[in-house]
Design goal:
0% strand; 89% helix; mainly alpha; 70 residues
Length: 70
């Protein structure tokens, strides 16, 4: 795998994670009714972004391992 391809996968993972964090925080803001605690919203955004980023990057890693075996 080329370095350029790895960088592209990292960017895709990070962008997907940030989008998921934004969606999760927006959903929390819409359902809570008020602005709430900034710490809670920040934690929801960062944790959900980190989880999705890890899942997507792990998916790329598994895909690379499976394709290299064939």
């Amino acid at each position: 795998m080329t370095k350029r391809n790895q960088q592209k996968q990292r960017k895709i993972s990070l962008c997907t994670g940030l989008a998921a964090g934004t969606v999760a925080d927006t959903y929390l803001r819409m359902t809570s009714g008020d602005e709430g605690n900034l710490l809670v919203h920040t934690a929801v955004f960062l944790v959900s972004a980190a989880i999705v980023t890890g899942i997507v990057y792990g998916g790329f890693w598994v895909w690379k391992r499976i394709s290299s075996e064939n």
